[in-house]
Amino acid sequence: MDTDARLSLLFSALSDSTRRAMLARLAQGEATVAELAAPFGMAQPTISKHLRVLEEAGLIRAARDAQRRPRSLVIGGPLEEVDAWLAPFRAQWERRFDRLESFLGARAKEKAKAKKRTDEATAPKGTKKEKENKS
User: Fold this and answer.
1) Fewer Cβ within 10 Å of end Cβ, the chain: N or C?
2) How many angstroms separate the CA atoms of 85 and 70, rounded?
3) Does a structural domain hold residue 18?
């Protein structure tokens, strides 16, 4: 499967809030279908469909443990592909936030200087001379 098709499959799997919640739960550790279904109040076939989508995207895997079939999050793999695709966008936003931080910092310094000048200009004249004489 080419990269574009793979990313489309991954983003499609991640587009549903129920599936994202299931992934968040699996990030805490493996869980059975019943445990994954509990917060949603959905019918078993609907939960199974969500799990199948996540498995086909390679985001989760099923194991067999006697009568149970616990699901677990696949570490790395597909989510690393998504992260790699997002990296240039993240870098762009980080540069923008850095520029914004610099701008706001410079603006705060300008405001502080302006306030100091205003405070000095509006201070009673005698007070300023008294301070100079004490020095």
Assistant:
1) C
2) 30
3) yes
How far apart are the C-alpha atoms of 7 and 100, rounded to whole Å? 31
Range of the domain at 12: 3-74
**Locate tokens 């616990």: which residue?**
70
Of residues 69 and 92, more confidently modeled: 92
Structural domains of the chain, count: 2
Task: Count Cα neighbours of 117 within 13 Å in the Cβ-side half-sphere.
Answer: 6
* Model confidence pLDDT, tens digit, residues 26-61: 999 999 999 999 999 899 899 999 999 999 999 999
Which amino acid is located at 47 in the chain? Answer: I
Alpha carbon distance 106, 52 (integer Å): 52
Strands 71-73 and 60-62: antiparallel
> Are 11 and 58 part of one and the same domain?
yes
CATH of the domain at 23: 1.10.10.10
- Say if residues 26 and 60 touch (Cβ distance below 8 Å): yes
- pLDDT category at 76 given cuts 50, 70, 90 is confident
Residue 60, helix vs strand vs coil: strand
